[in-house]
Design goal:
With 286 residues, the protein is α/β, with parallel strands linked by helices. It has ten helices and eight strands. 41% of the residues are buried.
């Protein structure tokens, strides 16, 4: 189990003024994040993926149960990282104990002096990274792949699905999904929900951001308008946007819903997989 020192050190590092200077480039900041993750994460979990001719870091943790349930890709929120202490790191630890292998990937980040609305330009690159993560898991013979996204990570997954990629993942679990009309270019998560045609679990907290709570009804209506009878919404009493001290309950809700929605899921895992497998070999796995 990862130490609290690890989590605190990462948080302090990411918020360091050194990275906040006006000269910090997007790629440079991401490289610094990756270096810190490499230095602090279990070396057996660190993998490198590639999208848009750029390498990015991921953290893979294998399930620990006799019966494997599947693989879950974790997508952090805006400006975070693949081992973000809120939600992402706790789920990386909890879900493998319930039979779910996890792959948390680094999404694109902007320099800290960049306006937040500019995160709209990262969506295409983020979608390509999600695609690369799916290819990696398929190459490892995972046939049943799910996505859990927190906040902007959930919006990223919906954006990916809007490009007709449904067959590659079986379900989406969104946590604290917000609206992002302020982005440039803007995205409308309600429209994306309406178009989604796969099972979706929409989780939010009783003490979540006001926008998340107020828009819960609109999200339900959007799913209903799209005739998605596999959409379910859960409000967790006492939970805030980051589910502090409620991570175990969050993991149980995710596991419970997946177990009920996909009761006959079985998984094939190739324990002899070489992490340096080529793109052509990954294609064959599909």
């Amino acid at each position: 189990m990862e130490t609290r020192f690890h989590i605190v050190a990462l948080l302090i590092f990411i918020l360091s003024p050194v990275l906040a200077n006006s000269g910090a480039k997007d790629i440079a900041r991401e490289q610094e994040i990756a270096k810190q993750l490499e230095a602090t994460a279990n070396e057996t979990e660190v993998i490198w993926l590639e999208a848009d001719q750029q390498q990015f870091i991921g953290l893979f943790r294998a399930q620990t149960q006799q019966k494997a349930a599947g693989a879950i890709i974790l997508l952090h929120g805006m400006g975070g990282h693949a081992d973000w202490p809120y939600i992402i790191s706790p789920l990386r630890e909890a879900l493998p104990e319930q039979g779910w292998s996890t792959l948390s990937i680094q999404l694109p980040v902007l320099a800290m002096d960049n306006p937040i609305e500019n995160y709209g330009v990262t969506l295409d690159a983020a979608a390509n990274r999600l695609e690369a993560a799916i290819r990696y898991l398929r190459a490892r013979k995972f046939l049943n792949i799910f996505v859990v996204g927190h906040s902007f990570g959930a919006a990223t997954a919906l954006y990916y699905l809007s490009n007709g990629q449904r067959p590659k993942i079986l379900a989406l679990i969104s946590i604290g999904l917000q609206e992002y009309v302020f982005l440039k270019p803007a995205i409308n998560t309600f429209n994306l929900l309406e178009k989604a045609r796969l099972p979706i679990l929409d989780i939010f907290g009783e003490l979540d951001y006001r926008e998340v709570i107020d828009n819960a009804r609109i999200r339900r209506l959007a799913a209903n308008k799209g005739n998605n009878n596999k959409y379910k919404q859960i409000e967790i009493v006492g939970a805030g946007h980051n589910f502090l001290k409620m991570e175990e309950m969050l993991a149980k809700h995710i596991h419970g819903w997946l177990d009920k929605a996909f009761p006959v899921v079985s998984i094939m895992v190739n324990e002899n997989f070489d992490g340096n497998q080529s793109e052509k070999e990954a294609d064959k796995a599909e």
